[in-house]
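Appendix B. Raw example, untouched.
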Amino acid sequence: MSAEIILETEGLAKEFAGFAAVGGVDLRVKRGSIHALIGPNGAGKTTCFNLLTKFLSPTRGRIVFKGQDITAMAPADVARLGLVRSFQISAVFPHMTVLENVRIALQRLRGNSMDFWRSRAVLNQYNAKAMALIADVGLSEFANWTAVELPYGRKRALEIATTLALDPEMLLLDEPTAGMGHEDIDRISQLIKRVAANRTVLMVEHNLSVVADLSDTITVLTRGRVLAEGDYATVSNNPEVREAYMGVGHA
């Protein structure tokens, strides 16, 4: 595994009662890149993500992160190594403020869950770092809003902020712009660009204009296998990819 590859899979496969949801995927993600995993519905993208973050165990194959075989590791151990999926850490508390949510996420990084019950003075030591993260995701003016009050796109930004509180080296984003209007999509896209300035990002995303705008490399899955890989121009001009997205045969 070369130094420029941060995450690699070899023959990664997952079968459910004989059905191959993922059928032998070889994936190589370059350090510092934005890498998109795309494909029609049922292509195996989410199963792939679940395998990478250890919410599922592979039937076959191996996963290597930063040169270390993580195939048999527990999800929490993989997260501690710096490979974090957005929802793993982003349990947003709806009736707490943006600041309180990010502050709690910072406490988790420290690893002392009992801080949750400690005095306001203890919690306030996290304020400066929390406010810096809140500013990074464009939520400064919403710091004292409760999470439940936030518009949908802003709530996704809060989820990303609580994930960033763990200081991940590589961030996995599952459908970061799903359900958003144009303005929110633009805002989250810009946020992903900023986040990726000093991290690696692997994302599943249906919005192909977002994929085209953000991605250095795109891997196309169909029926649990890699159909094509390359930059957007290469992938979008591939006739097999066009066929898969037009819904010819099985999606």
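End of appendix B.
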